[in-house]
From TrEMBL:
The keyword Cell membrane belongs to this UniProt entry's keyword annotation: no
Aldehyde oxidase/xanthine dehydrogenase a/b hammerhead domain: residues covered: 20-138
Name of the featured protein: Aerobic carbon-monoxide dehydrogenase large subunit
Keywords assigned by UniProt, alphabetized: Molybdenum, Oxidoreductase
EC number(s) stated in the UniProt entry for this protein: 1.2.5.3
Pfam name, any one: MoCoBD_1
Organism for this UniProt entry: Nocardioides pinisoli
NCBIfam families, alphabetized: CODH_aero_grp5 (NF040766)
InterPro entries: Ald_Oxase/Xan_DH_a/b, Ald_Oxase/Xan_DH_a/b_sf, Ald_Oxase/xanthine_DH-like, AldOxase/xan_DH_MoCoBD1, AldOxase/xan_DH_MoCoBD2, AldOxase/xan_DH_Mopterin-bd_sf
Keyword Oxidoreductase: yes
Annotated segments matching region Disordered: 613-632
């Protein structure tokens, strides 16, 4: 195809609407419907307790209260546990919660009762009147407590281990034992959370005349929500529509489904015969949505005099919270993506996924990769420090080389397929990064800063990201008789620029004007089958499906145009929505072809374009061929053979204040490879946003639980996050394009690129500035200050070294 639009820095067409305050989010819907009811949820104040009794008698007489549900009011599938979305053989003790707690609560924030009232204020007042008698149980908070197993989250899982999993390529422990040098590291990453601008929200409307349910949800998977709602409420799938309106951020938390409210709101709408709305407040999001990141890692590595890794053995412990609705995706990703761009000759990884009496864990932008990158990059830095080598030299020694692709790691990835990297050029990326950040000139800069009494450090981190995970996405492309092109794909949009990037693909593939393409996402009425937006998969999956669907529409357009113009299809070309015969003035626009595509059609007067008569076409041939159907449209699905692997490298220069231990960012550089770029401006925007989120995860954000399981910082007054003053004012970005051979556009995902190496790159830079090891993230100024005190009179023992022999 021509590439008039593909690869162009086209401004996002969706932005003006949002910038002018014209977005339409879940909480904006049905506000003018006088029948609309509102809901509120009673949530557990205890991390672990048995429910002895629930008394709702004081609620029923409150003016404005319409209905109250507890677990005892649920029946059929609604009374069963919520689905375990991604089962895995290693998840031997998977557990999911109920829509409303049955008998026991296992984290602060678990839903116990659901109240519907005439407005949210009445619903909240009613919730406060519900009386629950509890028998408190001992909570398990944090990985250490879960491993100690002196108490159990679930009685039938006494050791708190939901899953154990191990993979190995070669014999890592034997290789380490034989290696000339070995190191041992203990590395921790604490809990954080997505905290999007918009929390969860659901609206449902039931039409008793048609027995049709419409649900609007702030979700990352409208199709998944549709399937769950239909199954739990006993409805035909065809009778349920799920629409995702504008979404104020997802970042992973909204891929989990169904949330209790996504079932309770439709249940209430059906029962009461009126539309019902639920909008989550900020505290609810902190205590009842999802968290991620918390893992502890034990690393043993053996290497030679050049720093080449001969054996790598990693064991880690993953905190998955009170339940496991999303299975083992996060720790599986850590265990496989930990390898990054490197090729250890022998690798073993084993993890335990542990229950704690805290909020559940689902993917958060990066989804296990930031932890894996932190482990591998800290290991590379430790090897370099031990050998006295430049950190880039040790990495270069271990890189997979460009001529080694496709590269097989001998492991199984999150999609159940072999972990095989498709393309990349890691040495070229590193050369670009060093030039971008001024790596070779940094020591001169350090000396200059030291002369001014300033302390600076530099760090880098490399990563590989599996993107475009299957199983499929689909698309429908329809050319209107006006010449406009309507495109529908099932995955949802949370700000990624889909309306722009997907329109660029259609414009080039179909040969139409970019301005004539309209994209719809996340509406099961227009595309009933889809998977969802997560794991940097939208461009690869829906982009490829849209390209294939547009090709089908183009093939049909050329076939019809060839007949109308009495020309060979090979002599035709499409540009700006007009099909022309090369070398002649003969042409026909796509709108007219759309008219001709319908054998029972209105004929149009050429001058006025007005309908003049009703036509049945040529009586000498059948109106519709056996392999065709009316309309100028194309529909197709794309299913990849396996995931495609993007990659990148970040570098940062920081300054650490000698008195306050404040950490300031002086320079940030990124080199990124996501294959062919659809829109470089959108990719760079994704990187900027990811870096900002990564700064938060590395230096500010954490979930602070006390020993009783209470979240102490469940508000934006207490949960620290970076403002514009803490995020780099500019980020130097360079691109490398190594196309993927796995999809028709040669693209890879880019959505999580900015956040994956953040903990690793900041740890490296701070360690370089301070001269002592940084082994736990995030790190605050107060923690850095305490580390300084602890290492004042100590040498720089980056790790625990052992020399073989």
């Amino acid at each position: 195809m021509t590439t008039k639009m593909f690869g162009a820095k086209v401004p996002r067409v969706e932005d003006q609407r949002f910038l002018r305050g014209q977005g339409r989010y879940v909480d904006d819907l049905l506000t003018d419907d006088p029948r609309l009811l509102h809901s509120a949820v009673l949530r557990s104040p205890h991390a672990h307790a048995r429910i002895v009794d629930i008394d709702v008698s004081d609620v029923l007489d409150v003016e404005g209260v319409v209905a109250v549900w507890t677990y005892d009011d649920l029946a059929g599938a609604m009374a069963e546990p919520l689905p375990l979305l991604i089962p895995h053989p290693a998840l031997t003790h998977g557990r999911t919660q109920y829509a409303l707690a049955k008998d026991e609560v296992n984290y602060v924030g678990e839903a116990i009762a659901f109240v519907v009232a005439v407005d949210r204020y009445v619903a909240e007042d009613a919730v406060s009147r519900i009386r629950v008698a509890y028998e408190q149980l001992t909570p398990v908070v944090g990985i250490a407590a879960a491993r100690a197993a002196t108490s159990a989250v679930h009685d039938d899982v006494p050791d708190n281990v939901g899953a154990r999993m191990e993979q190995e390529n070669g014999d890592a422990r034997a290789a380490i034992a034989r290696a000339p040098h070995t190191l041992t590291l203990e590395l921790d990453v604490e809990r954080s959370a997505c905290t999007p601008m918009e929390g969860r929200g659901t609206v449902a409307r039931w039409d008793p005349d048609t027995s049709r349910l419409t649900v609007w949800s702030s979700t990352q998977t409208s199709t998944g929500v549709r399937g769950c709602v239909a199954a739990k409420l006993g409805l035909d799938l065809a009778k349920v529509d799920v629409v995702t309106p504008d979404v104020g951020g997802g970042f992973g938390v909204k891929i989990n489904h169904p949330w209790p409210e996504e079932l309770l709101v439709p249940l209430a709408a059906m029962t009461l015969g009126k539309p019902v709305k639920f909008t989550e407040d900020r505290r609810e999001h902190f205590i009842s949505s999802a968290h991620e990141r918390a893992q502890q890692h034990h690393v043993e590595v053996g290497f030679d005099d050049d720093g080449r890794v001969l054996g790598l053995n990693v064991e880690f412990w993953h905190d998955h919270g009170a339940y496991t609705p999303y299975g083992l995706i996060v720790p599986i990703i850590t265990s496989t993506q930990l390898l990054g761009p490197y090729k250890p000759q022998n690798y073993r990884v084993a993890f335990e996924s542990l229950y704690t009496n805290t909020v559940i864990v689902t993917p958060y932008r990066g989804a296990g990769r930031p932890q894996g990158c932190f482990v591998m990059e800290r290991t590379m830095d430790a090897i370099a420090a031990y050998l006295g080598k430049d950190r880039t030299e040790v990495r270069s020694t271990n890189f997979i080389q460009p001529d080694e692709f496709p590269y097989e790691h001998g492991l199984v990835f999150q999609d159940g397929r072999e972990l095989t990297y498709d393309s990349g050029d890691y040495p070229a990326s590193l050369a670009k990064l060093k030039a971008l950040v001024g790596w070779d000139e940094f020591e001169d800069f350090r000396a200059e800063m030291a002369a001014q009494g300033r302390r600076v450090g530099i760090g880098l981190a490399c990563y590989v990201e599996g993107t475009g995970v299957g199983p499929y996405e689909g698309a429908h492309v329809h050319v209107e008789t006006s010449g406009k092109v309507k495109v529908a794909t099932g995955l949802t949009t949370q700000g990624q620029g889909h309306q722009t990037a997907f329109a660029q693909i259609v414009a080039d593939t179909l040969g139409v004007r970019f301005e004539d393409v309209e994209i719809t996402t996340g509406d099961t009425r227009k595309m009933p089958y889809a998977v969802g937006t997560f794991a940097s998969r939208a461009a690869v999956m829906s982009g490829s499906a849209i390209h294939l669907a547009a090709l089908r529409a183009k093939e049909k357009a050329l076939r019809i145009a060839a007949e109308a113009l009495e020309a060979s299809e090979d002599d035709l070309e499409i540009a700006d929505g007009v099909v022309s015969v090369r070398g002649t003035d003969a042409s026909i626009d796509l709108g007219t072809i759309a008219v001709l595509s319908n054998p029972l059609r209105y004929a149009f007067d050429e001058a006025s374009k007005a309908a003049t008569q009703f036509s049945v076409g040529d009586p000498g041939k059948p109106p519709v061929a056996e392999d065709d159907e009316p309309g100028l449209e194309g529909k197709d699905f794309y299913s990849p053979p396996r995931s495609t692997f993007a990659n990148g490298m970040h570098a940062v220069i920081v300054e650490t204040d000698p008195d306050t231990a404040e950490i300031r960012i002086l320079k940030y550089a990124v080199v990124h490879d996501c294959g062919h770029l659809i829109n470089p401006m959108i990719v760079e925007g994704q990187i900027h946003g990811g870096v900002a989120q990564g700064v938060g995860g590395a230096l500010y954000e954490r979930m602070a639980y006390d020993e009783s399981g209470q979240l102490l910082n469940a508000s934006f007054m207490d949960f620290l996050m970076p403002y514009a003053t803490e995020v780099p004012t500019s980020i130097d970005i360079d691109h490398l394009e190594t196309p993927s051979p796995l999809n028709p556009l040669g693209i890879k995902g880019a959505g999580e690129a900015g956040v994956i190496p953040s903990a690793a790159v900041f740890a490296a830079a701070i360690e370089d500035a301070e001269g002592f090891p940084i082994t736990s993230m995030p790190i605050s100024p107060s923690e850095l200050f305490e580390l300084r005190l602890a290492h004042t009179d100590e040498p720089h023992p980056t790790t625990t070294p052992t020399t073989a022999g």
